[in-house]
Amino acid sequence: FRLAYVAPESRVVGAGDLVDEPKKIAVHYLRGYFLLDFFVVLPLPQVIILAIIPRSFGLSTTADDAKNYLRVIILLQYVPRIIRFVPLLGGRQSATGFIFESAWANFVINLLMFVLAGHVVGSCWYLFGLQRVNQCLQNACSVSNISSCKVFRDCGLNFDIGGQNEQISQQWVNEPASTACFDTGNDTNFQYGIYQQAVLLATKHSAVTRYVYSLFW
């Protein structure tokens, strides 16, 4: 609401007049990108992870559905967020007006943009990598003789493992088709491509390790 802009009607006759009146700036912003900016700052991933998914697990939502929700939210929120940041990478002045006075401010916004882009790309890479692992386990489940392997593959089904079911679960763990999904060699039947490291990362118990490596990637 304080970002000055160049009046579009003044660009026809010259370089353009910079509008710095707070009221005009606010009206211009409300008519422009306000709704988009409001949408991209909503904590939708956090709401889905902390509220919606736990309540619906075991009812109508599976772990596969949860990952699909997260992928959709990332694409709907973070891609527009990066698009809104792109004009800030140009330096002191964007297509709409004056932004920063100092080189340090430009350095900080470029650094934040780099970290945000790494966060988005790393998140998508890790989610799509998990999707490939899940696809391999689905294929392994379809060719195995274990009828209840789906409940061992999808934690969202809220299945209680005990007694005889624990023995069946151990059979699924030792099933050659399922263990082959975590073999990332070149001679495996299921090729992961750029998600090869994500497969190995999926076996790590540390959330910090998974996040930092995805951000690094």
Automatic annotation (TrEMBL):
Organism: Aegilops tauschii subsp. strangulata
UniProt keyword Iron present: no
GO CC annotations on file: membrane
Gene3D superfamilies given in the database record: 1.10.287.70
Transmembrane stretches, start-end: 33-57, 103-128
Compartment(s) where it occurs, according to its Swiss-Prot or TrEMBL record: Membrane
Pfam families (UniProt xref): Ion_trans
Name by which UniProt lists this protein: Ion transport domain-containing protein
Residue span(s) of domain Ion transport: 26-195
Keyword Ion transport: yes
Gene Ontology MF annotations: monoatomic ion channel activity
Chief place where the protein resides: membrane
PANTHER family found in the cross-reference section: CYCLIC NUCLEOTIDE-GATED ION CHANNEL 15-RELATED-RELATED (PTHR45651), CYCLIC NUCLEOTIDE-GATED ION CHANNEL 20, CHLOROPLASTIC-RELATED (PTHR45651:SF11)
Membrane topology category: Multi-pass membrane protein
Keyword tags: Ion channel, Ion transport, Membrane, Transmembrane, Transmembrane helix, Transport
Residues in the signal sequence: none
